[in-house]
Amino acid sequence: MTVKEIKSLIDQDLDAAFEILDKYFEEDPIYNAFNDEFISPPLNFDKRIFCRRLQRFVQRNKELINAENEDKKFLQPDSSDQIYQLLCNLNFTSQVKYFKAIVKSKKPIIPFVIRAEQNYGQSWLYNRLIYHYQTEKPIHPPITIDLKSSQFNVSSLVQHLALNIGVKKYDESESIDVHRHQIKEVLLEKIETASQILIIKNVNILIHSEDFEAFVDIIDYFFTKIKSSTIHKCIFFFIEDELTIGDPYSQYCIFSSKTKAFQAKQEQLLKFIALTPIQALTNKCIEDWLGLAEEDICDCFNLEEKTIEQLLIDCGNGHPEKVLYYICREIGQEFDKHKSKWLKY
User: What is this structure's pTM?
Assistant: First the structure.
């Protein structure tokens, strides 16, 4: 993306602009100061002035951006990684940005909730977050537990956690308190060397059950007992298979916000971090994405607004996963061909 295009994007969509700029300046302290100011704006924050300052920063670093762009020209047009990065520019910008900010906190254990209707891009999002995280930190193989695979209650969840995490002397006759202590000890040992990611799918089964309070108590035990000075973390992804709003769930969540109060909470409180719910893609999403794409990619699409509207209608009114499949097909790729790599977990 050219300097001119980035400066234009700053005016149109700051979240998307930061997503692009992260690739160039993530280690730059001046840029990170911009990032922090955007996430936790001061009381006198003026978005227009902020955009002008950020654009001046981009202009002053145009040589670095141009050099990076030249290097990218040597990528093979059909490489899986390049296609993946192209699709990553399409959506989930806000969720990725919050995730990146939150995992920089000092907490050794962080619980995220990914919220969406059934099969609405949850897998794409959490795999994308894992992909980003493991490019920066070493991780143990992620562990996945699907609560829909059997009749689950809190006891069976703890059992599955113990067996999958690697508790060596697991005795089914022992109490939940013993098992959760064993799990805590294994997690502490693991995050001394690398981060551990746990994916709990179909968490709605517990949210709507009489065991939900007990489930929260179990997770809260890990949050309060696991204390470590290591840079590595234990990251939970709790995946909804239907969008849950209101009690009893909301009282246990910190919802995404750009306020200082949110940052203070996520540093001090041990609660679920509910990422922005996954929404249908819109005309603006597609138009902004095409604005970031290379010319040969844009040539695959008719840029007329009416055609974009039809694209969204054909894809279940902007269903995220269906749009991903559609775009791959239009640029001559098969999503399923890359699925084992992009949706690995």
Answer: 0.70
